[in-house]
Specification:
two-stranded antiparallel ribbon; 109 residues; mainly alpha; 45% helix
Length: 109
């Protein structure tokens, strides 16, 4: 495989990872909840597996707060913002193909 093709493939992989990372941020719930904001979801003595089987989060690292608690809801970006991610993906992939046509420094075309 030519060195130029390797660089283009690397750029495309990087762009793919960035695009997928942006889309992955559209989660609706997280277990990252400040201890003082936890809402109890279990009972005294509940185990981690019992807690998670209820669809709840378990973290016993802080005393005096619920260890089994409801996940925090995250605002999902409106669907109108999704085309922007696709547009960014298109711009970046076009840049990668432009790099293939123009070449990088020290490349032999």
């Amino acid at each position: 495989m030519a060195p130029m093709q390797n660089k283009v493939i690397c750029v495309l992989v990087l762009v793919s990872m960035l695009a997928l990372g942006t889309l992955a941020q559209a989660e609706t719930e997280t277990c990252e909840v400040d201890p003082d904001e936890r809402e109890n979801c279990g009972y005294p003595g509940i185990t981690a597996s019992q807690c998670t089987s209820r669809g709840c989060c378990f973290n016993d690292s802080v005393r005096g707060v619920p260890w089994c608690f409801h996940p925090k809801t995250i605002d999902v970006p409106p669907e109108e913002s999704w085309p922007q991610v696709v547009m960014q993906w298109g711009s970046l992939s076009q840049a990668a193909f432009s790099a293939q046509k123009v070449g990088f420094p020290h490349d032999t075309l």
